[in-house]
Amino acid sequence: MTPATEKEIVKLPNDQDASGRTFGAEEIAAVTDVLTSGVLITTKGKYGKMLEEEFARKLGVKYAYACNSGSAAVHVAIAAINPNPGDEIVTTSITDMGALTPIIFQGAIPVFADVDPKTLNVTAETIERVLSEKTKAIIVTHLFGNPCEMKAIMELADSRNIPVIEDTAQSFMAMCDGKYAGTIGKIGAFSFQQGKQMTTGEGGIVVTDDDEIARRMYLFINKAWGYGDPNPDHYFASLNYRMTELQAAVSYEQLKKLDHSVAQRQKMAALLDEKIKDIDGIESYKPVEGSTMTYWKFCLRVDDTKIEDGSVGLSKALKTYDVASAPRYVVKPAYKCMVFRDQNTFGDSHYPFNLARPEAVDYNDDNFPGTIKGLHDVLVLPINERYEEKHIEFLADSIREAVAQVKK
Questions:
Q1: 179 and 272 assigned to the same domain
Q2: CATH number of the domain where residue 167 is located
Q3: What is the phi-psi region of residue 178: left when phi exceeds 0, alpha when psi lies from -120 to 50, beta otherwise?
Q4: Which of 121, 158, 203, 205 could cross-link to 192 by cystine, CB 3.0-4.6 Å?
Q5: Structure letter (DSSP) for residue 240
């Protein structure tokens, strides 16, 4: 192999700038159309409605409502479930904070379920361990574009009559038993943040087939104002989570490119998987049986009995090739963050944690062996729809050489 110091570096497309995104004349034309019209609010414009209609059609659901972030999408979903103060919502120990603080803002208690260390996803088994009579909803996060084991989870949830919210922020168009992720539970919540399979920088959308849930989600996005009602009012406490027409215009054009973006990610991920499958000490993530993965990122499990310093050591070696990677993903489980550990919420009230059962907020690592193991082993690598075979060749060679450098 060519030594790392002499290896020709191939610059990988980056989803944080134009090199890794599919922006083009279509988005520019749509944004120009909005600015020329002077209508930048979705309640008056056309793109917000067009985006919602087309997104619903694409996923085969009755309702889709756009909002201004993925965090807002999760908040809208939780608000639609309408928990009482002190109700419990089961969620994952490994997710973005934007999917967790909405639980607190609705007065509910986040109850963390452990994960499968091979996928970092919750399972029916880990969820069942933490269910209680106070469980109001279950949030499942399809991490990295890899769906959770939804058949078993839905059987469990349906047997207890507990609604399931799917956090599908990273998993556009992923399939699970013939259904799109986000359409299996009661509500699906999506994110259009910069690095997702489609983007408008910040933005989100929620979907459902339930008429009553749809009504509450629509209202919550719009300050609970009943647009079009005979005698509209602000029916309950809510926020302004509307997307702008500028965001909607970009999202609408990005949606047209989503199938290609997902297919290219899958094609390049399959190629990379093939090229590195024989490397001892690492193993790529695989979807569960009956599912397809749409690769928000490409993840490896790194065996620290074979690789010096595990995922951290391999990440350092990859820097030699200018390959960015994230060892241990979010580094620590969500329950170790100060907002949960110290119950830093509203003033010095500790609300809603002051309403919690002690067992619901038992954040001892001993309760989360899968979480600790999974985060220790994972190395998150970049991938996006602008990758071509030359990029995969370079990335695979770089991984192979980096592993050789840090092999025990």
A1: no
A2: 3.40.640.10
A3: left
A4: 203
A5: B
- For residue 7, pLDDT over 90 is answered with no
Q: Are 201 and 297 members of one domain? A: no
Does 281 lie in the same domain as 216?
no
Q: Confirm whether pTM is higher than 0.70.
A: yes
Q: Which of 257, 289, 317 is the last residue of a domain?
A: 257
Pairing of strands 187-191, 164-167: parallel
Would you say residue 62 lies in a domain?
yes
Please name the residue that has the structure tokens 């620590």.
332
* Both structure tokens of 135: 């469980």
Whether residue 268 lies inside any domain: the answer is yes
CA atoms of 362 and 134, how far apart (whole Å): 16
Range of the structural domain that residue 130 is part of: 25-257
- Asked, for residue 106, whether it belongs to a domain, the answer is yes
Do 239 and 264 lie in a common domain?
no
pLDDT of residue 208: 98
Domain count across the chain: 2
Count helices and strands in the chain by DSSP H and E runs = 13, 13
Q: Report how far residue 64's alpha carbon sits from residue 57's, in angstroms, rounded to the nearest whole number.
A: 9
Give the Cα separation of 19 and 37 in Å (integer): 30
Contact 155, 144 (CB under 8 A): no
Q: pLDDT tens-digit profile of 62-107?
A: 999 999 999 999 999 999 999 999 999 999 999 999 999 999 999 9
For 303-347, the pLDDT digits (tens) are 999 999 999 999 999 999 999 999 999 999 999 999 999 999 999
Which tokens sit at 394?
């370079």
